[in-house]
Amino acid sequence: MLMLDYWHDMNIASPGPSHGVSLGNEYLMNDAGNVSPTFGASMHSGSTNYAATLAKSITPAPTMVGSSNGLQIDLVWDSSVAKAPSGFMQAVIDAAQYYTTLFSNKEVITIDVGYGEIAGATMAPNALGESESYGYLTNYATITAALTHDGFVFSAVNEPTSSQFFLTSAEAKALGLVNPASGLDGYIGFSTLSGTGYSWNTAAGTNGSNSGTGANQFDLQSVALHEISEVMGRVGMEGATVNGKSTDTPLDLFNYQSHGVLELSSNGGYFSNNDGATQLGTYNNASVNGGDIADWASSTSATQSHTLGLPSGVHVYDAYDAFAFPGYNGEVLQSDILEDAALGYKLTQAGVGAA
Questions:
Q1: Which candidate, 8, 15, 19, 219, has a CA 20 to 30 Å from the CA of 287?
Q2: CA distances from 295 to 21, 260, 304 (A)
Q3: Which residues contact 300 (CB under 8 A, 6 or more apart)?
């Protein structure tokens, strides 16, 4: 079992034009959950020296998936991907393609992809994958006003009405708060697994599930689905301090301790999209187990998450789990799709069927 993420940092870049709401400066959240302003962030600007020219010549061209009439994901490959195993790019492409079949928001999510690194930096040694997301610091009123349009009601007795909120730029696009086509939204990186005794199963398909992961392998497509969803907004902060203020995320508003009571901590809780009345998945107790607070519980078993659609008795785990298991195939399940929908992603007909 290995940790799927280490977590994400935030820095600031100039924001794209907003659509009616001023979200201010853009930040970057790294895979450790830290948020900091970024100034002049850009897509890996190259130099004119020979090494940079050579790297550019072997860097795969970007890949855009999805329809121009709906959700598109633009995968921008780092030069490190040229050293990835056969099938690596297709597994990531198929993972991205699957999301474009589930959700209809007319936006372009741009993600930089690295192999053995993320945004040019070394990955945590115990992480299968990592993500970093650009985003904005805003408030409770802005977030709930946008999500209320999707039919969600925010009536917990402990709603964090005075908290600051971090919103990834991809989710801000989905909610119509910024230009839906501008800017880099985040980074994802994948371990080389060098020295671990494991390798990647690079088999993939465009239906959110996989097969053929061997006893000493991890499911690459599952990790890609996991990391892409974090750039889309599947992140939690649960009151972490940013710029001296208690900070939450939109997902934290769907993490419950009991009916009508939000968890608002890193101690687990469960996902619900109806004020805590229905439990749709158990969150990871990050304060005890480490890992991400927005991932599903999986420190003891692949069924600990209790997510809808998780088959029993077979080697399958939920792709949004905090920890992955060798020899297991990861899938995006019903609870995962409902969770993404709670963040403002509108279901296609295929998405409704899958959820």
A1: 219
A2: 29, 21, 12
A3: none
Ranges of H-type helices in 67-153: 88-102, 140-148
Locate 133 and state its tokens: 């997301």
Q: Taking Cα atoms as reference points, which of 5, 1, 233 lies closest to residue 129?
A: 5
Residues with Cβ within 8 Å of 73's Cβ and at least 6 positions away in sequence, in order, are 64, 65, 66, 96, 97, 99, 100, 108, 109, 110, 111, 228
- Report d(CA 55, CA 234) in Å as an integer: 32
DSSP calls for 132-197? EEEEEEEEHHHHHHHHHTTT-----TT--TT-EEEEEHHHHHHTTSB-TT-S--EEEEE---TTTT
CA distance 158 to 334: 27
Closest CA to 290 of 10, 28, 32, 29: 32
SS3 category, 223: helix
pLDDT digits (tens, 9 = 90+) for 139-163: 999 999 999 999 999 999 999 999 9
In the chain, the number of structural domains is: 1
Q: Which two tokens stand for residue 158?
A: 């402990």
Interval 182-202: pLDDT, tens: 899 999 999 999 999 999 999
Give the pTM: 0.90
| Location of structure tokens 């990955």 | 123
Kindly state the helix (H) or strand (E) to which residue 331 belongs, with its residue range. Answer: strand 329-331
Dihedral (CA of 57, 119, 63, 200) sign:
positive
pLDDT along the chain (355 residues), means of 10: 49 34 76 70 36 62 96 98 97 98 98 97 92 97 96 97 97 96 95 96 90 96 98 97 96 98 97 98 96 95 94 89 95 97 98 96
Q: Give the DSSP H/E element, type plus range, for residue 53.
A: helix 50-58
User: By residue range, what is the domain housing residue 274?
Assistant: 2-354
